[in-house]
From TrEMBL:
InterPro entries: Glyas_Bleomycin-R_OHBP_Dase, Glyas_Fos-R_dOase_dom, VOC_core. This is VOC family protein. Gene3D superfamilies: 2,3-Dihydroxybiphenyl 1,2-Dioxygenase, domain 1 (3.10.180.10). It comes from Bradyrhizobium denitrificans. It comes from the Bacteria.
Length: 125
């Protein structure tokens, strides 16, 4: 349904370092680098960060976030730890979340600009 998604960032170098570290446990890497945008993915760029130099910090009450699929709870844990080490802020530690139909294990972080990023997996055990 969705081919790719992007978020704005105020400092491209800082955000590139953040996302390289945070996304590595999920198997995503920097694939394309242009003067004002960086594309991350596995086989092609599915996630982009775009430089917006005058961008204000994303307000916490926007309600928007993006979510990356993890293969395991260990990958979710790794994403959260790497994101915090890279300068992100926890917005929900790794753990099971209540859900109507499935077992949902996720972690949430805020990137350096306040974008809310999630990693999720659906454990069967």
């Amino acid at each position: 349904m969705i081919d790719h998604i992007s978020v704005g960032v105020s400092d491209l170098a800082r955000s590139t370092r953040f996302y390289e570290q945070a996304l590595a446990p999920l198997g995503l890497a920097r694939l394309i680098e242009r003067p004002t945008t960086i594309g991350f993915g596995k086989a092609y760029p599915e996630f982009w960060i775009n430089l917006r130099p005058g961008m204000a910090r994303v307000p916490a009450d926007t309600g928007s976030h993006l979510c990356f699929r993890a293969k395991s709870t260990a990958e979710v844990d790794g994403f959260h730890a790497a994101a915090l080490q890279a300068g992100g802020v926890s917005d929900g530690p790794p753990g099971l979340r209540p859900h109507d139909r499935v077992r949902y294990y996720a972690a949430f972080v805020l990137d350096p600009d306040g974008n809310r990023i999630e990693a999720v997996t659906f454990p069967t055990e």
